[in-house]
Write a structure and sequence with these properties.
Belongs to the MND1 family. With 259 residues, this protein is mainly alpha-helical. The chain has nine helices and two strands, in the order ααααββααααα. The protein is elongated.
Length: 259
């Protein structure tokens, strides 16, 4: 019995020692995108105006990062048109309201739609130009090859040599074929507006459209909550916060592409 207890204790001790050696995984820090989202959440939470010192102090605590990083994160949001600022005297004030954010996203979405349309049109024009250029180059190359063969035949006939050098002609055909392949490769290298780039733009537009719909739904939910719980009128509430009676319907990207 004592020996059995000692074996069990020794076995358990081995596992205990191993567990003691295990170190907890290091906590992974927030990425730049996650920091931007947290800071944007901080601004939208209170709907207030902040100085840069308040952003560095309160915002850093909300995100959980060093205050020295706040200017860089804030500048990224400003560059993305998600945070607005205005200079009053010698002080800059920063803010983000839902209506301004929705308006900015709608504007960016419309600009991307226009840019996408322009890219598609340019791609079609360039594709047609490349097609014509390829055909022109091939025709020109073929004509030059035929001309060189005819000249060689004429030289042979002028020299009284009616026996055509078959190996010479085969070598020329191979040479011309290699030259043609190289020129076609050069044309392909100059092809612009890769369809994969257009697919990336379409994916960006789809994500933006989803975010716009999500924000619109959140605004409607907030209005419904205030109306039902605070006895407020919908029209008065929208007028107070400059919210339009009806949001503009976003175009369907898939329907746009099919047309």
């Amino acid at each position: 019995m004592i020996a059995l207890f000692q074996d069990k204790f020794s076995e358990n001790s081995r596992y205990i020692n191993i567990n003691c050696l295990l170190k907890p995984p290091k906590k992974k820090g927030l990425s730049l995108e996650e920091k931007k989202l947290k800071l944007l959440e901080f601004f939208k939470k209170e709907h207030n105006f902040y100085t840069i010192k308040e952003v560095e102090s309160l915002g850093s605590k909300y995100i959980g990062v060093n205050s020295m990083q706040m200017k860089e994160i804030l500048q990224h949001l400003i560059d993305d048109s998600l945070i607005k600022f205005e200079k009053c005297g010698i002080t800059n004030f920063y803010w983000c309201f839902e209506f301004d954010l929705t308006k900015s996203i709608n504007s960016n979405y419309s600009n991307l739609i226009k840019r996408k349309t322009t890219l598609i049109e340019n791609n079609q024009v360039l594709a047609e130009k490349i097609k014509k250029e390829k055909l022109s180059r091939v025709n020109e190359l073929t004509a030059n090859q035929l001309l060189m063969v005819k000249e060689q035949l004429k030289i042979n006939n002028d020299n009284g040599n009616n026996d055509i050098n078959r190996n010479y002609l085969l070598a020329k055909v191979k040479e011309f074929s290699n030259d043609l392949e190289k020129k076609l490769q050069i044309l392909n290298d100059y092809t612009e507006n890769d369809p994969r780039n257009l697919d990336e733009k379409i994916n960006q537009l789809t994500k933006i459209g989803y975010n716009i719909d999500l924000i619109t739904d959140n605004i409607d939910l907030l209005i419904s909550y205030w109306v039902n719980n605070k006895n407020l009128e919908t029209s008065a509430l929208k007028k107070e916060f400059n919210i339009p009676d009806e949001f503009i319907d976003l175009p369907n990207i898939n329907q746009f592409l099919n047309n």
